[in-house]
Amino acid sequence: MRRPLIVGNWKMNTTLSDAVVLANSVKRAAEDLDSVEIVLCPPFVWLVPLAENLENAPKNLTLGAQNMWFADSGAMTGEISPIMIKDLVKYVILGHSERRSHFGESNALINDKIHAAFTHGLTPIVCVGELKKLQEEKRGRGRPNRTDTKSDVNHQLEEALKGVSKEKAEKIIVAYEPVWAIGTGHAATGGYAATVIEKLRQVFAKKYSKSLSERVRILYGGSVDSKNVQEFMYQPEIDGVLAGGSSLKAKEFIAVCREAAGRQ
Ligand code: 13P
User: Which of 177, 231, 237, 259 is catalytic?
Assistant: First the structure.
């Protein structure tokens, strides 16, 4: 049984006081939502105060980082190493489409980061997804032109898993996040996301085993909110969501978590 996971990626948003208020609200709500696991991913600078704030939080609420570099230390101006975050967070988002497109992160770099995360006991949330925006006429909920999707997405996952042992692969969380759905208000349909995610499971099945592919948690992300989250949770292939914009408003994010926990 895969436990549903709801991840809030705050991206480059919040002041310190916003961050504390938001985290405290989720902390209070998390108490009666223990059928789901909730992860908050604030900007790096708020990790220390929030880790202190969440010290006595319910076990189903933890922190994640939005990124990290792969080396332990060194001349890497502006970067954060796994050593610096490993005592603060349980998870680390790697390979987000914004890192791939704005910072030129390659599949090989993301693979290095995945190995580094495991070395330091962090669980990677690996993002994969179509990087192309939809053509105007294809916009809207649903599916893009199939020719520019599946192979890209599967390839990103295959590259991410290079050299990753079976024991570690089982712990990876994958998030399918198509760029055409991120921040657009046009989420994929549940059915479409489930089809892509099923293909991602086949990548795990081929490389490791069918049973492992059935144990890995795979999330959907891209314009998820409290109104559409059920559509994704309803799909047996989908184990939770990675929310951006909707994770910045306490009431809305708690509603997403409640819907996912079937507590509305
Ligand atoms: P939105 O929920 O704002 O579309 O962002 C999704 C995302 O990129 C989460 O990582």
Answer: 177
What CATH number did the domain enclosing 251 receive? 3.20.20.70
Q: Is 102 in the active site? A: no
Q: Is 224 in the pocket of ligand 1 (CB under 6 A)?
A: yes
Q: Does residue 69 carry a pLDDT above 70?
A: yes
Structural domain for 129, as ranges: 5-260
9 lines ligand 1 (CB under 6 A): yes
Please state, in angstroms and rounded to a whole number, the distance separating the CA atoms of residues 118 and 116: 5
Q: Are strands 91-94 and 240-243 parallel, antiparallel or unpaired?
A: unpaired
Query: Which two structure tokens, joined as six digits, stand for 108?
Result: 């090989």
pLDDT in tens, 4-40: 999 999 999 999 999 999 999 999 999 999 999 999 9
Q: How many angstroms separate the alpha carbon of residue 209 from the centre of ligand 1?
A: 30
Our answer to whether residue 120 is catalytic in this structure is no
Looking at the whole model, is its pTM more than 0.90?
A: yes
Residues 264 and 259: their CA atoms lie apart, in Å, by 5
Q: pLDDT by residue (tens digit) across 111-127?
A: 999 999 999 999 999 99
Distance 5 CA to ligand 1 centre (A): 15
The confidence band for 140, taking pLDDT boundaries of 50, 70 and 90, is low
d(CA 99, CA 120): 21
Match 């704005």 to its residue by tokens: 102
Question: Which atom of ligand 1 is the closest one to the Cα of 93?
Answer: 10
Atom of ligand 1 nearest to the CA of 98: 8
The number of folded domains in the chain is 1
